[in-house]
Each structure stands twice: as structure tokens, then as C-alpha cells.
Amino acid sequence: MSTTTRTPxxxxxxxxxxxxxxEARLASVEAALTxxxxxxxxxxxxxxxxxxxxxxxxxxxxxxxxxxxxAPRLLPDDLYPTPVAALLQRxxxxxxxxxxxxxxxxxxxxxRCLYGALRAEDPGGEHLDDALxxxxxxxxxxxxxxxETVPSANDHLVRGQAHAVRILGDAAALADARxx
Length: 180
Known about the structure:
51% of the residues lie in helices and 0% in strands. It contains six helices and no strands. Residues 66-72 have low confidence and may be disordered.
């Protein structure tokens, strides 16, 4: 009788299996989850096939958000307590709701420039000079010391309605901080 020696192979019992890499494990989990999801979807279709349904028309139910232009903001109840700051805040609201223009105090459609909005909110001119001084300072803080007047800044530097409203809001905060 002859004796032969056998060397163990990877398929024999007691062999150490090679560990799977990360990519292989992820692919295996993905395949298992996909199979479970497909089975669940098929079960839902089978279990609900006998239920009659009518299509739902959502055009009368679903409403989109209002755009800022179609829903103007109401005058804030919390106006600044100081008169100049409140005037600047009211002027900002006027520009926000009535429109902003350049090249004139009031446009044909009722839009106003920075000065025109302040003048409309303070027709007696009680606080107009102080408001213009603070507004000019706010404009100089943003555009530099070369800004000479509020009307020139309105016509040459202000980029649009939202920008004009923001500058008036900044000036209102500045006036309030100074107690004006």
C-alpha cells in the first residue's frame, strides 16, 4: 500500500475564508435590499389591486406661495420709538409697497426716490433734515465718502428697489441707535 500526502485546499473544512472587501460587502447589501424592496412593492400591488380608486385633481387644493410682489408687507406695528428712525422706516415701507424710481422725485406710476419717499412720509418737514443727514451717512458707509447728496446717490449708486429699501432700513437702525 502506498501512502499519499494530501495538501489542504480552500474548499476543505478548516480552511480560513478570505474576508470580503468593502465594495463587495456594499454590493451584496445593495442587492439584498433591492430584492426586499421589489418584493414589498409587488406585495403592495397584489394586496391593493382590488381597491377601486379615482384620480384626484389637486388643482383646487394645492396652492403655491404668494410672491413678495403680490403680497405687500403691511406697515410694521413695531415702528422705531424715535421720530427720525420711524420716519426712515415708514419711507422704506413706502418704497417697498409703492415702488422706487430714479431720475425724479415721483414717477408716473407713483414710485418714489429716496428723497421723495422721505418727503411723502414727512410732509411738514419736521424731521426731514435729520433723516436726510442720517441717510446720507448710511449711503457714505456703503459707497464711500464721495457720495455728495441723497438724490445723486439715488440716481447713480442705488441698484434697485430692494437695495433702496435696505439702505433706508440701515439708516433707520442708525438713527435709532443715536436716539434720533
